[in-house]
Design a protein that fits this description.
It is a single chain. The protein is α/β, with parallel strands linked by helices. It has a single domain, classed as Alpha/Beta hydrolase fold, catalytic domain (Rossmann fold, 3-Layer(aba) Sandwich). The protein contains nine helices and seven strands, in the order ββαβαβαβαααβαβαα. A seven-stranded mixed β-sheet has the order 1-3-2-4-5-6-7, sandwiched between helices. Strand 6, helix 7 and strand 7 form a beta-alpha-beta unit. The longest helix is centred in the N-terminal third of the chain and has 16 residues. The chain is globular, with a radius of gyration of 17 Å.
């Protein structure tokens, strides 16, 4: 957006009266890293959908580093609305993972009239010590293992993708990042899928969303599951998401 090229993937049948589902990836994700999961969700519901890679990820244009501490606000306020307008999408259901779930909440608070329902996997609404410890640990993994080669399968610029995520989360200024004050603006129904073994966040994030939003919330703790329910427990995540989105359509 703003002259940047974004990688976009589309799923399901052609758009209909039902709002499309937009999938928002995590901090090291991309449109392609969702793999076949969005297609499974859309096909099960008979709905259209799309996923896009944010600037600096996947096959989208590179990002200027360092990312600002406000990068999730900027994505929700300045990029996602323009993308939806360009795709002639008005009202939308959102499926966000990790940073993508936080972006979904910010978008819903700013644009309640455009937000139908939301599925949130492992949302972040404030910074926890467990999150920064895990992000610092994976920084060492990136420097000492073949993680870069693995990320290169999904990102044209794996170094930019990794640094853009890792460095902003470890920026001392980011420790005060907190979007709980925006949550009362969220009126859309919410489903939260939280892995019981999430190494990047605790149930305190779920509690904060439940207390903060104005709409209804259903929260599901998924056992034997880390930070990405759609990868760690795809069948359970799919069942919960499809049933919720069908009921809120």
């Amino acid at each position: 957006m703003g002259g940047a090229h974004l990688e976009v993937r589309r799923f399901g049948p052609p758009p209909s009266e039902a709002p499309p589902i937009v999938f928002l990836h995590e901090g090291l994700g991309s449109a392609r890293q969702w793999r076949d999961y969005p297609a499974r969700v859309c096909d099960a519901l008979g709905r259209s959908g799309l996923a896009y890679s944010r600037v600096g990820y996947g096959a989208s244009d590179p990002v200027e580093l360092p990312r600002p501490v406000s990068f999730m606000h900027l994505e929700a306020y300045d990029v996602l609305p323009v993308l939806l307008d360009a795709a002639s999408i008005g009202r939308v259901d959102l499926y966000g993972h990790s940073d993508g779930a936080s972006i979904a909440l910010l978008f819903a608070a700013r644009h309640p009239e455009r937000t139908g329902a939301m599925v949130l996997e492992a949302p972040h609404v404030f910074v926890e010590e467990v999150t920064t410890r895990s992000i610092a640990r994976i920084g060492k993994v990136y420097r000492t293992t073949n993680l870069r080669e693995k990320l290169a399968r999904w990102h044209d610029d794996p170094d930019g993708a990794f640094r853009g995520w890792n460095e902003v989360w470890l920026d001392p200024a980011f420790r005060s990042w907190d979007i709980r004050r925006e949550l009362p603006g969220v009126h859309a129904p919410v489903l939260i899928l939280q892995g019981a073994d999430d190494e990047y966040g605790t149930w305190a994030q779920v509690d904060a969303v439940e207390r903060g939003v104005a709409g209804s919330v259903r929260s599901v703790r998924i056992p034997v599951c880390g930070h990405a329910p759609h990868r760690d427990q795809p069948d359970r995540a799919l069942t919960e998401a499809v049933a919720f989105l069908a009921a809120t359509a």
